[in-house]
Design brief:
nine-stranded parallel β-sheet, TIM Barrel, 12 helices, 272 residues, globular
Amino acid sequence: MSRIAPVFEALRAAGRKALIPYVTAGFPRREDTLPILRSMVAAGADVIELGVPFSDPMADGPVIQRAGDRALAQGVGLTDVLAFVADYRREDGKTPIVLMGYANPIERMGLERFIARAREAGVDGVLVVDYPPEESAAYATQLRAAGLDPIFLLAPTSGEERVARVAALASGYVYYVSLKGVTGAGHLDVAEAVRRVAQIKTRVPLPVGVGFGIRDGRTATAIAASADAVVIGTRLIEVLESGDPAQAAERAGRFIADIRGALDATATPATA
């Protein structure tokens, strides 16, 4: 069993929503990765999504693409990402870490080898954007057998068949992409996202997190009205790249603390 389910159970009992920041490993500099993780967790992050840099990130907008390019220029790849997780686990054995990325680096390493190394490093879940649930039964089974959660995406265009497939395969949580398009694109229709998440939760017996378009405490709180978690990536990457890399971790902590405060202001502890 990974660390993810107990975190969501504790948050649910406290009436709180999970805050899941996404950062690209190795950005803005290789040496900033661990300080950024520490700062975000200290500021109230519940789960970390750690992006694996990839040269052709089809689902990512220009902001996250830039972050990936800068990490790749420093030679950061999947092996380095696993090393970052292993290093972080020496000081934090509680915060779940989910790797988010694409199939190519995993296929190059070999799925079985990747799963073994991810488990050894202390990874809790894996979200591979281009592993469709219709073709991922064996992959999901292998992950769960190793104690890792296979996390899948749902989108505004996902039909009932795909929702049912994800419900059957996923564990940990489900990531609802609130926008049609890449990360950071378009305008978030909060009312539509809230409505769609409520529908998904009638079909999927897992926590549902929402990402792609949440940029501040106001939108995070509005989405949390129906979602179990909010995922923030593009805006956080913008914060990290907005100044001196030496202060990137400090900026990340302040940003996450603001979102955490907004979410907790509406917390409603469960009653017995």
